[in-house]
Amino acid sequence: MKNILVPIGTSPNAHETLQFAVDFAAQFSSSVYVMEVFNVTSGAGKLANISAKVEMSGKERLKEIIGMVNARDVDIKIATYNGDLIDGLKEIDEEIGIDLLVIAPRSNDIKEELYLGHTSGRMIKRTDIPTLIVPKGTKFSPFKVVLTGFKSGVLKRNRILDPLIQIKNKFESDIHLLLVKTPGYTDKDLQVNTALMDISSQLTLAEHATTYLGILEHIQLHQPDLLCVFRRKRGVFTNLWEKNTIHKAEFSAKIPVLVLSVKKD
Fold first, then answer.
1. DSSP state, residue 80
2. Chain mean position to CA 81
3. Strand, helix or coil at 85?
4. 6-to-79, 105, 152, 181 alpha-carbon distances in Å
């Protein structure tokens, strides 16, 4: 896990997400990139250098946020991008290789309607970069118990599991697998990837109307420190990933969520 990227938005709690990312990165000797995206179209004359001015202002703000965290000898670098957020993430990923995104949900407050807002929702939906969603105010501690929930155990590429394997190896995590049989499941869905089985201590089969409902029940049962799910075209949170905003009523886990990418089902 060489490079971790933390997109910084307008939240006054951005330093908390960055601190979690830094504390996590320190365990793996990773570099942390702090990123801010702006969108300025420069014209002629007096507007010719407005992009440079906005970029400079963004960098100064990032430096202020970095100054609020304990760096713990982690190499923290600044990245800015003029344009669309998703385009910026893809460009930086192509340039340096991003092993993990660390983002915060919109809010932990049950009174808030949304779990993920438009921006964070787009990152989950429209990139293939493994993403760690960290509830605001969460202090880093080793992930000792990990619940990995899915409706199909078929994975075409074992490297999809790399972030989960690295977490297990570093923290000696106890990984519980939850295969949720939903209406219309096939025998193929019940075939669990051997690499996934090799890193797990327990496999539970459950039947629910949706994978999401099965996961909610077993979060209460196992009390995990981390929930791991897969980003699929048709999978664990299909109804959530289809839109950019995710409602609190639909998903309200108060623990970090690791989203691994599966490009093709």
1. E
2. 20
3. helix
4. 10, 13, 30, 35
Q: Is 153 left (phi over 0), alpha (psi -120 to 50) or beta?
A: alpha
Distance from C-alpha of 79 to C-alpha of 36, rounded to nearest angstrom: 7
**Cβ-based burial of 108 (10 A; exposed 0-12, middle 13-18, buried ≥19):** middle
Task: Give pLDDT tens digits for 116-158.
Answer: 555 666 776 767 889 999 988 899 999 999 999 998 888 888 9
Q: Are strands 202-207 and 145-150 parallel, antiparallel or unpaired?
A: unpaired
Residue 252 in tokens: 């309200």
45, two tokens: 């004359």
pLDDT for 77-131, tens place per residue?
Answer: 988 777 788 888 888 899 999 999 999 875 343 344 444 555 666 776 767 889 9
CA distance 160 to 143: 19
Total residue count of the chain as it appears in this document: 265
Task: State the virtual CA torsion across 107, 110, 115, 118 in degrees, nearest 10.
Answer: -70
Report the chain's terminal Cα–Cα distance, integer Å: 25
* 3-state SS track over 22-38: HHHHHHHCCEEEEEEEE
Kindly report the pTM of this predicted structure. Answer: 0.84
Alpha carbon dihedral 110, 112, 115, 120, in 10-degree steps, equals: -150
Pairing outcome for strands 257-261 and 131-133: antiparallel
